[in-house]
Structure of Crp/Fnr family transcriptional regulator:
Amino acid sequence: MPAIFKAHLQKFITLTNAEFQAILPYFETITVKKKENLLTEGQICRTNFFVLQGCLRKFFINEKGVEQTTEFAPETWWMTDNMAYEFQRPTEFFIQAIEKSEVLTIHHTAQQELLKQFPVMERYFRFIYQRAYAAAQMRIKYLYGMSKEAFYHNFNDKQPAFVQRIPQYLLASFLGITPEYLSEIRSKKRS
Amino acid sequence: MPAIFKAHLQKFITLTNAEFQAILPYFETITVKKKENLLTEGQICRTNFFVLQGCLRKFFINEKGVEQTTEFAPETWWMTDNMAYEFQRPTEFFIQAIEKSEVLTIHHTAQQELLKQFPVMERYFRFIYQRAYAAAQMRIKYLYGMSKEAFYHNFNDKQPAFVQRIPQYLLASFLGITPEYLSEIRSKKRS
């Protein structure tokens, strides 16, 4: 499992094997079952999650009492509630495994210490946050300017394998539509 | 003017005066007039902007041909189209000064070089992107789960001075409503 993380790190930074071995103890590997929560609304968000295998989703309970999915994290993606994590505050989100998953976790204090001891990790996380921020800015553009139908086609064009992989009701939740309307959009495309 | 940037950097990193003087030549200070564009749809996005004085906004032209404002950058905020900037691609956005503004600019190549020569700037930009990403995640949550009215009150509660500062039609555009509906929400609050 560390091999996945090492290969991922090496996309962004140069790291000797000794450095990688020294970095590993800052992390813990856990296995979570399908539908198991890694974070629950109201908890102080103390952990950052990196998916080695499987897939996580982030959601909140909206005013109608319905789960609203805002994000997915498949392999080699990080996920946490970044605002609650940085300021060690209670979260408004849930993070849940949508498949049986293997996850690398790092505690907030350990991440601070890692950055202090290994400045090269500043570069790594600068890349991670920079790209995540850029992707979030595009999401905001889509949420403002795109119809739900166009949002589906855009997501399907960019991530066809992923759209096949996730349950239809979660994809509908992410798109902000009902599963029935999603079926309708899909059958229109096929016709 | 450099004093504003120095004070801002020192919130995140420790920098000697000599280091700060060595960093400054990577940047250029420009003055832009009200309504002047710093970035135009279709251009390769080569520049990152840091507001010393004034305020910028980012917008795109939506399917109805209307300007949709997605972001504001007042003093000490960075702004660019991060996706287009990182991959040096044409942008889908405009960046425009909403007041006469003084802006520190850095070219993409210069920023890469700065990060290489001054690794402490990796830490600085890691913080900047981390916080911007966290804020964008909260924006996404609001866009999914909050009524336009609640979004206005939330924004007004958190940034009352800023809400007073920006023109009403731009605030309406940011909220995704008409100026008329914004007036209605505001008068309801007053009653």
Chain A has a mean pLDDT of 93. The two ends of chain A are 43 Å apart (CA to CA).
